[in-house]
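On clarity, I found the account of how folds are encoded harder to follow than it need be. For illustration, here is how one protein appears when written out as sequence plus structure tokens:

:::
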Amino acid sequence: MSPNRHSARRRLTAAQEPFLVARALSTTYSGGSCLHPHAHASHQLLFASSGAMTVTGDRTSWMIPPGRAVLIPAGILHSIRMWGEVAMRSLYFPVDAPAPVFAIKTCRVISVSALLRELILRIADLCALDSRVASEARLMSVLMDELEAADIEPLLLPLPEDPRALKAAECVLKEPANTATATTLARSCGLSTRTLERLFRAETGMRFGVWRQKAKLLESVRVLVRGGSVTDAAMESGYSSVSAYIAAFKQTFGYTPGAISERATTGNATTGNVAVGG
């Protein structure tokens, strides 16, 4: 389905261009929609006020459930997949923005506090921030403080580069509930178990078993966002015990799957009218 771009409340002029320290774009996508690989000339803060997204790029996949956002540095090639109806709010910042938060050149998922969420939505409503307007300059300052203070979430899954190890990874991602052993998966991909473990350690920083568990848990987030129960998420991600699933989820992400499910069902979207950005 084509994205629904809301009409602008505020018209920007060419005279403002040199003074814009942030731009905003708001789009609503239906579940299953995809944005093919692309890159921006600006730094991007990507947030969904409802629904969830998977951002993939640079041999890594990031899951962005409700209440989280992802910072994407300028020039990073990435694609996006939507889970559930996604009310996307994107903020774009000049590539030469002096803020320390943009000094890190890798994508990262951050926790969105109540204040940060309202800042994102307010700036989206304004369409852009003009540094010459005192109130807008103050909003930008508070936004940078909130981004700097935001916790980084472990909602990423690095992918191996070796074609054989990548094939094993894709097998897991395609069927997370599959109970095939590491030995069986390795053999089907032309590897020994030892080589599979060595490649995953070297190229993802995780043992294959740990990587596989995280892949299953991230898959379960998609189930929760689509309105599935915690039991559904456990079963579809290959856990026979709901309590074991909840324990593993909390140990990995720091909160229970019920927190994701609650955010997904309460529907905290704010529609707002937002302009096109850079």
Residues 223 and 233 are 5 Å apart (CA to CA). The chain is about 40% helix and 25% strand. The chain has two domains: 4-153, 160-264. The radius of gyration is 20 Å.
